[in-house]
Specification:
Distance between the termini: 66 Å
Number of helices: 13
Strand order of the largest sheet: 2-3-1-4
Largest sheet: 4 strands, mixed
Number of domains: 2
Oligomer: single chain
Helix content: 40-55%
Shape: elongated
Strand content: 5-15%
Length: 263
């Protein structure tokens, strides 16, 4: 990729993105910037036919990946796994104007070119992105910052069997989604289902039942207590995935939720 091509990419992306590309952080990459540009250029060009991506979209993708690598100060670029790159470029191509979703593909490709973490980038992560909608690309921010195995939401219900729209775990998830710009409750609910389906979060449900004794005179009057515990927890797969596709500037505004309810 020549300096002229980089200039053209900068013009296409706009002055703000171009300024980021030639910022001191990018210049500090020195000779590795040329190597990185060459890897990005070769990698994307090799997938054009398979991914059925237009030349304009390919140029745009190459510029965005180069910008992302520069932001992350990737000084030791490596060739990404061919199968991962083919799938990621194809996913980027069909995302059209869904910029939130395209950004996740760009970040994943950039991390796949970083020697320090390239082994952590698995092709299965691209398959997850292929399942995502633009709303899912937003809601994933709600999970950034949670560690593997950490509780995200825990709801304890006493003598309750609420309908789906009233399940506390979904109510709390909707609250988390509102903080990242998703106000539609149905969209938020489906987004949680997508996270669970793809193994990003784990939903654990347990039931406990016990009785308290009645009076000595009337042992029939026992009080039965049914406890339903619903927990949403970050999976190992999810923790790795979220750390790769979210940026430090998108730390979750949420903390784990714990709720209690009773009839």
């Amino acid at each position: 990729m020549s300096e002229h091509e980089i200039d053209v990419f900068g013009i296409k992306l706009g002055s703000q993105a171009y300024n980021e590309l030639i910022s001191p952080a990018a210049r500090a990459l020195g000779s590795s910037l040329g190597k990185l540009a060459s890897i990005v250029d070769k990698a994307v060009e090799a997938t054009l036919f398979v991914a059925n991506i237009s030349e304009d979209a390919a140029r745009h993708l190459k510029a965005r990946v180069l910008l992302e690598c520069a932001k992350r100060d990737i000084c030791r670029p490596v060739d990404p796994q061919p199968i991962l790159l083919r799938k990621a470029v194809a996913g980027y191509a069909v995302s059209f104007d869904q910029d939130e979703l395209r950004s996740l593909y760009v970040r994943l490709i950039a991390r796949a070119m970083d020697e320090t973490c390239s082994n952590s980038v698995h092709p299965a992560f691209v398959s997850v992105l292929n399942d995502f909608s633009p709303a899912d690309a937003l809601s994933i921010r709600s999970l950034h910052g949670f560690d593997e195995g950490q509780k995200i939401i825990e709801c304890v219900m006493i003598n309750q069997r609420p309908a789906r729209e009233q399940v506390p775990i979904y109510i709390q998830w909707r609250n988390m989604c509102r903080k990242v710009g998703i106000s539609d409750e149905d969209v938020a609910d489906v987004s949680l289902d997508v996270m669970i389906r793809n193994g990003i979060v784990l939903r654990e449900t347990s039931y406990h039942s016990h009785s308290t004794p009645g009076t000595m005179v009337d042992e029939i009057n026992r009080n039965y207590v049914n406890k339903h515990i619903d927990t949403l927890r970050m999976s190992s797969f999810g923790s790795r995935f979220v750390s790769l596709v979210c940026t430090d500037g998108e730390k979750s505004p949420n903390k784990s939720f714990e709720t209690n309810g009773s009839t």
